């Protein structure tokens, strides 16, 4: 069996309402992870690319958060409608989507802001 080429880790952490850090999946639906799985399957990428449910990735204030390895690309404020372009641009074409990217200066730094309007 060939090795996986990418793992997409999708934060599905759920916290109680009103928590100071919020969370990436307040409904606990795992809908974002499921959207990645559906898109990977639709494109026939499933055998080589995995979309996995992750616990808190510690970028809660920038969530919903996704990290892709081995590319080491972090995305924040990811919505279901972003999934096809993440798969196309980052998984297939190897490009970083700037308006979703969490820059190195923002990782583990909750005070920063991203490019994507909220
Ligand atoms: S709850 Fe998703 S990064 Fe912390």
How would you sum up this structure in a few lines?
The chain has helices at residues 31-42, 83-92; strands at residues 6-11, 49-54, 66-69, 73-75. With 118 residues, the chain is α+β, with helices and mostly antiparallel strands.
Q: What attributes does this structure have?
A:
four-stranded mixed beta sheet, 118 residues, globular, 19% helix, alpha+beta, Glutaredoxin
**What Rg do the Cα atoms give?**
14 Å
Distance from first to last alpha carbon: 41 Å
Oligomer: single chain
Q: Tell me the CATH superfamily.
A: Glutaredoxin
Can you tell me the number of structural domains? 1
Uncertain segments of ≥5 residues (pLDDT<50)? Answer: none
What is the overall number of helices?
2
| Number of extended strands | 4
Largest sheet: 4 strands, mixed
Q: Structural class of the helix and strand makeup? A: alpha+beta
Ligands in the structure? FE2/S2 (inorganic) cluster
Q: Share of helix among residues?
A: 10-25%
Describe this structure in words.
β3 and β4 form a beta hairpin. The model has no long low-confidence stretch (mean pLDDT 92). With 118 residues, the chain is α+β, with helices and mostly antiparallel strands. It has helices spanning 31-42, 83-92, and strands spanning 6-11, 49-54, 66-69, 73-75. It has one domain: Glutaredoxin. A 4-stranded mixed sheet has the order 2-1-3-4, covered by helices on one side. The longest helix is centred in the N-terminal third of the chain and has 12 residues, at 31-42. It binds FE2/S2 (inorganic) cluster (FES).
